[in-house]
Structures are given as C-alpha cells and as structure tokens.
Amino acid sequence: MNPQIDNLLHENRKFPPSDAFVSQALATAALYDEAKADRLEFWANQARELHWDTPFTQTLDWSNPPFAKWFDDGTLNVAYNCLDRHVEAGNGDRVAFHWEGEQGDSRSVTYAELTAEVKRAANVLSGLGIGQGDRVAIYLPMIPEAVVAMLAVARLGAVHSVIFGGFSADSIRSRVDDASAKLVITADGGWRKGKVSALKPAVDAALEARGDLGPQETVTNVLVVKRGENQVDWTDRDLWWHEEMAKADAEHEAQPFPAENPLFILYTSGTTGKPKGILHTSGGYLTQSAFTHKVVFDLKPESDVYWCTADIGWITGHSYVVYGPLANGTTQVLYEGTPDTPHPGRWWEIIEKYKVTTFYTAPTAIRSFMKLGRKIPKKFDLSSIRLLGSVGEPINPEAWMWYRKVIGAKAAPIVDTWWQTETGAMMISALPGVTETKPGSAQVPIPGISIDVVDDDGVHVGTGNGGLLVVTEPWPSMLRGIWGDPERYQETYWDKFGDKYFAGDGARLDDDGDIWLLGRVDDVMNVSGHRLSTAEIESALVAHPFTAEAAVVGAADETTGQAVVAFVIIKESMLEESAAVEDIAAVLRSHVGEQIGPIARPRDVFVVNELPKTRSGKIMRRLLRDVAEGRDVGDTTTLADTTVMQIITGQVSAK
Ligand code: WTA
After folding, report:
1. FRET label pair with 116: which of 288, 372, 576, 653, CA 20 to 30 Å apart?
2. Residue nearest to atom 15 of ligand 1 (CA)
C-alpha cells in the first residue's frame, strides 16, 4: 500500500474550530438541516442568489437520467452575474484581481475595469463571428486577459475550451478538432521559471496547413495577447488582442441565455487514450461554484483577499479563480509564475504583500515546501491568513499538520475539498466554523450533496469500511455529458451502478462516518494533483518509432503523490538503432513531453524485454507498480508466463 494512504488509516487527531472563528462564521449546522428537509428547494434558494433574467420555475428535470437539466426554464447571463451585477450594486471600485507577474510587475484590476474589458472583448469576439454555441479555444498564461477571454466568451453564450499552457501542439490540435473551435486566443508567451515560455508557436504548429486528408480546418482566426514580447511568426488569420481591443466598441449589453446553455468544455484524462471533453452548462454550474466558494471559504467579500493557486487551465481555476469567486464579488490574487521564482519564498512574499486571508492550494505544493523547511515561510508575515484549503489529491496527515502549524499559525481551519472536473464544484468538504476537522479526511458531503461509499454491488459499506465513492443524487454543477459522445458519458460514469454516479475514487468511512479518500481505482494517475491517463501516455510512447509495446503505472512519490513510470519494449527491427542512442530513456521522456506536454513526462523509463500479461493478454499493472515502488512482487499466479516478473525485476534493479 502507498505509505501515505497507510498513514491515513491510522490518523485520529481532531481539531474543533476556535470560538473566535465560530462566532463570525457564515456557515452554520442549520445548512445541513435545510438541505435535508428539501434538497431541491435548498438548491433553488442558492440559485436565487444569482441574477436571473427569467426566473426558473422548475429546479431539476431528471426525467431522462443520466442527463440532468437544472433550472431549465430560467435564463441568465453568466458574465453579467460575475461582473456588471457588482458594478451596478456600487462595488465597481472593489479590486477583482491583484495580478502579480513572475518578474514582479503587477496590476490591480477593479470590477469596473474588468467589466469594461470584458465588454470590449465581447465586441471583438462577436466581430470575429463568435456567437451563441460557438467554441473558442483559450491557450494563455495566468494573466488578467485569460479571465477576460473566458468571461467574454461566456457573455456571448459561446463555449470556451481552455487548454493548459503546458500542453503541446498535438494536444492543442486534438482539442481544437474535437470541439471544432472557430477561434483560438493565445499569447506570444508568458513568464515561467525566470524566462519567457513561448505559446503561439505551439498554436502555429497545431494549425499548420492540413494535407488533403483529415478534417477541414475550423479555426478562422487566432487572437494573440502580447505578454512575453518574444518574436512570433505571423499569418493572415492572426490578430493582436491589443489592436482589436483598441478598435472595439466599449458598450456591450449582456443578453440572457437558457440555464442549460453550454458554458465550457474542459478536457480531462480518462482510462482510454483519448481525453474526454467534459461539458458544463450555465445556471447549475454557477449556482454550485458560487455557493461552495462562499460557505467553504467563509467568504467576506468586503474584507477577504483570496488566493487560489490553480492555473485557469484546470477545473480548479475555472470554478475557484473565475466563476465562483467572481460571482461572489471576491478580491483575489492572480499569479503568473512558478512558486520558486525568483526565490523559494515567492508565494509567502505574495501573501505578505497582499495580506491574503484565504489560501487554496494542492498537497503536492505543500509537500514541496515542507521539504524546503519552515525557515522560508517564517521569513514572511503570514498573519493575515485565516483559512486554508486543499484540493487535487489526498492530503497526508503530515502535510496537513505542517500546513496548519507553519502556514496557518495553528489557528486557521483547513478545508480539504474533494471534487472533480466532472463534478464542476466541491462535493465533499468540512465547513469552517462547523466541522471538527481531521488531518487527511475530506470528511462530509457539502449540504445538498448525496454521497455514499459502496461495494462492487453498489451496497453501502457501513462505518469502518472501504469501498467505492459514488454520488447518489444529481447535483447542480454536474457534468452534462462528454462533448460529442453521450454513450461514453453513460458508460464511464453510470453503467457500473445504474443509478449512481461512479467517481473512480476509492474511499473509506471511519467510525464517525467521515469520508477518507484513498486515490483512484482506475487507470488514471494523479501527479502533482493533475490527472493523467496511463493509456494516453502508453499511446504516446508507442507512437515513437523505437517502441513496440509500453505499459505505464503511477508509482507512489513523496512529493508529487504519484509519478509516471513507464516500461517499454523496443522493436526487434530497432534494436540496433536504439542501442546507438546514449540515453534512450531521455529520448522517450522528451517524446512524451512533445506529444502530450511536459507534465506527462515519465519520471522513469525502463527498457524491458517483456511485460507481465494475463492469459487473456491484459497487462498486469499491479505487478509493475510493485516493481516501480521497490516492493516484493505480489501474486503472479494469473500470469501467462510466471517467470516474466523475475526478469523484469532483474532488469529494473540492474539500472
Ligand atoms: C482527486 C480536481 C483526495 C480524486 C478538483 C479525483 C482528491 C481527482 C481531492 C479529480 C481531495 C481531488 N482528496 N483526492 N481533496 N480532490 N482529488 O478532475 O482522485 O483534476 O477523482 O479535479 O483528483 O481531479 P480533477
């Protein structure tokens, strides 16, 4: 067993909220009672916190499961709810973003300014032919224009597909094709690790003229933000963002769209080689992201300074940098760069500078700071912090305790929030000021959310037992499907139990009935809080001319949670050629980087002669994981050839 998970099973410390926190907390135990009394009415009330142009009369339509419709006959404009509404309420001067560039350049943007920029950008986009339902790909660094671009798309009722800046040209191409995007918004480059990392060349490579075969190019324009000042090639379809913005009309009135109008597609790794385009719509998504952001972070919009460190290329950036916080009129920090540039205390320096009150990050970041030691954060004044959050992977109790002591001064409650790209918003978390917290446990469902832990037959496991995490009732921000593939949606999440959503995570209920997440139960890895698919990396590896076969596993890693470890067999015909290569592992690692993106590069690549397979030919990843984690290899009786593991273990330990 993964040693971090093992620790989780022996943890029994508890931390009640302080009286001082309780006396000012937004959340109360009554929220659970309200939700229990009438779940749908509870969500309808949360939805009514938004501005609806046409109020909805029906809360949930579940007549065609698993395809849900929430607030279906209502209409709203998502961008209006995140922007104009606050300006009209007299809060236009409130800072929406304190943006900090990696080089130390900074810019504060108020709600009035952000609204004005989004209006202009909406005019630019509609001038380029973008309207309701059109797909726009966004490939940008963490700069205010990224938020402006997303909200401008939303304002027009169009659909954005944000592609993480670390993905390669091939990944951009497949995402643009899958969604038939009409427009790409990118930048020349952005700052990362002290230098400009170019972005536009990857878009250019993705959009290079197609041959006669293959689909028709759907992209008509590329809009380019100037940020890195790096030299870029230029074609007829390219336009500079700043030039178009300067020409655009400043006025733009937001039109209402149906609650179920698609808002965005976000690709995430599944168990097959092809990423899934997770589809989210408007009213239900905004309701749950705003509600959870408010109660889980005890949000006081007049006084809090909130910082979520996630990149907007991931769901956490969508729901807890853009939509939830902006719908609530939050003041945020937005940081362009990496945590250790130009020095390892960069994050803590930013917290001191902006007096951040609420900080939301991933366990992998906490563990890498732990490794560097408490001396670094101790150099900065972190006394403004009053609440800490964690997301993306199970947080081991050691990291939780360090976070509490060193960053939270033993006073700030920690909320460990479990959710997924598919769930759109938080599903399991403590409520600060209400829940007695436990290091390593995400604990309890959000009010209005129905979660269970069940065995393979779908039967509740009972306290003290482990099983599979499921959601038993539809929820407002649930995915509405996989873009263009309703069958895959049904198959992946619903076929296993019929009437319950299968999350793909293992979980355990403790004696109090609290939920402890135990990691993925499928072939999805979680590396530094990022989801990667074993199949996707395997298919990238076999695309290399040297590779005959490849198997990839996620092995426990002290810092990143899991690390990608690959086992490859070289083609007979390539043995000679590959033998001439000095470092074949390095060649294959960088090949994966080019095919998918640097985050997918394996930590280790082992060249082996054989892979362990069952008699039906299925690769036994469990055994490879044993090898990768340096353990004795477990039960091999179902292998077609029982000697193969000895050979592999020998080959790996010879390295
Ligand atoms: C994992 C990120 C334990 C889980 C928001 C899930 C977690 C996957 C937690 C989704 C947590 C996320 N504790 N595990 N607090 N949060 N996970 O789609 O395995 O990038 O299925 O969404 O991350 O990853 P995704």
Report:
1. 288
2. 418
